[in-house]
Design goal:
It is globular, with a radius of gyration of 17 Å. It contains four helices and seven strands. The protein has one domain. The chain is of the alpha/beta class.
Length: 155
């Protein structure tokens, strides 16, 4: 994993300045709705994951890949292009970037109402504004699938 202490001063400043742009949402829920125990949850990750037989992500990719919830971990590959991303955790445990097993455990315990059948992956090393059109498209797909909560796994 890349550590801030490993970067040059200019690179450190670049990454720390990004934090200043994050909005403060406070503790108020963004949207009202049922308790988590009654929600259908999908995972959206920016780990650049895709099925082995699907097309890999290219640098600057602003689209997403569909990941069926029953896809075996061995069928998922990562084509994330960031040179700063350490893939060791993913190679040892898919749940580090795509916590489907943990989400299923929460559903089994009644903490989450249901786990969606379909999940999605973007490639995070891209310009955020470029993702808006596909994010809106994906929101429509989630709505059609009756997903009313997402677990975001930013990488």
């Amino acid at each position: 994993m890349a550590r801030l202490s490993d970067f040059s001063e200019a690179e450190k400043k670049h990454h720390l300045d990004k934090i200043l742009d994050f909005p403060d949402f406070g503790e108020t829920p963004i949207a009202e709705g049922p308790a988590l125990a009654q929600r259908r949850v999908a995972i959206i990750t920016t780990a650049g994951l895709h099925l082995r037989n699907d097309r890999p992500f290219d640098g600057g990719a602003a689209d997403y890949r569909v990941i069926p919830g029953d896809a075996p971990a061995a069928d998922l590959v990562m084509s994330h292009v960031s040179v700063n991303f350490d893939r060791t955790g993913f190679q040892e445990d898919l749940n580090v970037v795509f916590p489907l097993d943990r989400l299923r455990e929460l559903a089994d315990e009644g903490m989450v109402g249901a786990v969606a059948d379909i999940h999605y992956s973007f490639m995070g090393a891209t310009q955020m504004r470029a993702l808006e059109a596909k994010a809106r498209e994906l929101a429509g797909l989630l709505k059609k699938d009756r997903v009313d909560a997402v677990l975001l796994s930013p990488v």
